[in-house]
Amino acid sequence: MSDHALLEDSRDRRTPEVEGHGVPIDLVDVTKRYPGQQAPAVENVNLRIPAGEIVVLVGPSGCGKTTTMKMINRLIEPTSGQILLGGEDVTRKDADQLRRGIGYVIQSGGLFPHLTVGANVGIVPGLLRWKRSRTSERVDELLELVGLDPARYRDRHPRELSGGQQQRVGVARALAADPPVLLMDEPFGALDPITRQRLQDELLRIQEELRKTIVFVTHDFDEAVKLGDRIAVLADRSRIVQYDTPAEVLANPADESVEGFVGAGAALKQLTLRRVGSVDLDQAVTATPGERTEEVVARTRAAGRQHCIVLDERNRPLRWMSLRDLHRQTATLAPCARDDGLDVVGVQSTLNDALDTMLTSSHGVVVVTGRRDTYQGVVRVETIMHAIQELHGDPSVEEGARR
Ligand SMILES: Nc1ncnc2c1ncn2[C@@H]1O[C@H](COP(=O)(O)OP(=O)(O)OP(=O)(O)O)[C@@H](O)[C@H]1O
């Protein structure tokens, strides 16, 4: 696709009201030759990354993804070519100043172990000489944004956090000075699948609000499909084999190498394109502690269900309760703690995430939550099977859907 076409396309996709704070990034004939190396690590790359979009660089190990990304904030200097940020040549800027305007998140979180969470997040505002009160307000705001309670986590040290929490702090730190550009180098690569999925969901939620220009490097094609507005599939020396929307890459892989990346089950991968929030959610029977048990039983029976879901006073799901569990209750439903094993996905999750969650727990249903973990509904395995059949173009399903 030509640069011009790309620009037109991105304009079509975004209304002015949601035009964010990001700036476009242009790589023009960029080459990097490491000293003592015969072949360049990156050769003649031309790439336009539109403002406010997530562009994912995906490709085999050693193809030059990290080198390409690090040239944008000049952690690596290009041998030749130009990199423009909002039309300005990055090599004309002071490197330190440039980096303060570009958030950077790496795999291990990169937190300073001897500093508290708050101090880690406040580093760039500190360098920018913000007033202490402004920095501390900003730190709390960012911890909230990435889903960490400031009162609980602000004064902890990184070693007192889980890997996923450290990574959240890494994202908060990168966003501290509100940079228009965020570079993320395999930020979720070291996390377990469930935590990775949660953080991907968080990133999409944050991006909906902030509309940064995000360059994201990953090995994981499913991650690229889930997060990317566009995917750049790279081969050796960062040669761009295909640069397109995830739907296009899945439907029309440019060549055999891209097909290899898409891998087996391309149709199934299209589940990654559909968000849980985009399907009609089923409603389970809900109940809250303090209700009369008899009424909950009657409601569950009337709905022809065997289970209801208990919500707390802020509408957050706590646990499933079977009719048998209900019969063991006293006249009113007793307060209960949240079941750690409860299968929950956010509205930003993909149908693929929901299916994965079901397959690992072998329950045929997952609870869906929205803002502040509030209950939105449930997705059943039948809904996902239906979506798969739709993807395969089964006419009887479409007929059924119209009815
Ligand atoms: N400092 C360096 N000196 C010499 N060669 C390097 C240096 N850094 C990277 N390379 C080489 O440049 C090429 C691209 O490396 P790069 O780290 O950008 O790839 P990558 O796609 O990010 O790999 P991975 O997915 O494994 O992290 C590789 O062949 C690598 O060996």
UniProtKB/TrEMBL annotation:
Any one GO biological process: glycine betaine transport
Annotated ranges, domain ABC transporter: 25-262
Signal peptide start-end: none
Pfam families xrefs: ABC_tran
The keyword Transport belongs to this UniProt entry's keyword annotation: yes
EC numbers: 7.6.2.9
Keywords: ATP-binding, Nucleotide-binding, Repeat, Transport
Region annotation (Disordered) ranges: 1-22
Source species: Actinopolymorpha pittospori
PANTHER family on file: OSMOPROTECTANT IMPORT ATP-BINDING PROTEIN OSMV (PTHR43117)
NCBIfam families in alphabetical order: proV
A cellular component term, taken from the record's GO annotations: membrane
Annotated family: Belongs to the ABC transporter superfamily.
Name the UniProt record assigns to this protein: ABC-type quaternary amine transporter
Biased composition (Basic and acidic residues): 1-20
InterPro entries in alphabetical order: AAA+_ATPase, ABC_transporter-like_ATP-bd, ABC_transporter-like_CS, CBS_dom_sf, Gly-betaine_transp_ATP-bd, P-loop_NTPase
Enzyme class: translocase
Keyword NAD: no
Entry superkingdom: Bacteria
Record SMART domains: AAA
Example GO molecular function: ABC-type quaternary ammonium compound transporting activity
